[in-house]
Amino acid sequence: MGLLLSRIEVQPFTETHMDGSRDAGFPASQTDGAVNGVCSRGSATAVSTAGAAPATLSSSAAKREKVAYIWGTHIGERNVQRSDRVEMSAESVASATEAADRMTTDTRALTYMVGWHHSHPRIPAVPSSVDLCTQRRFQQYTESG
Fold first, then answer.
1. Whole-number Å distance between alpha carbons of 87 and 120
2. pTM for the complete prediction?
3. Where does the record place the JAB1/MPN/MOV34 metalloenzyme domain (predicted)?
4. What is the CA radius of gyration of the chain?
5. DSSP strand E in the chain: where?
6. Rounded CA separation 29/105 (Å)
7. What pLDDT is stored for residue 85 in this prediction?
């Protein structure tokens, strides 16, 4: 199990109106602090977009989207490991937070914990009760600041 580590930027997008006309978005390079912090081992491994706008937005709609650049993951110690579940310790989450602070200092780019991931190849992909509990705790952690 690991925590996803990222920096988030606000990027412009071109708005397409129903009549086919287009408007340019706002300038890029604004860093957004909407998610709480973690990062480690800075190598980009994925790009994920959030809030992408449909092509038929009205002219009053927002003209920016958030883009998360995934820098890497922080692999934590396992609190429990059985054939049907793996739980991450609170110390591992704290360690990932410290790694994010170091990455922010080293790169001068705000870095955030944006999610968690795990895999279990011999178990169905449907989230287990432990997965759902982990997600709930993660959301409470990030919302509490």
1. 12
2. 0.41
3. 90-143
4. 18
5. 2-12, 15-16, 22-23, 30-31, 46-50, 64-75, 78-82, 85-88, 112-117
6. 18
7. 57
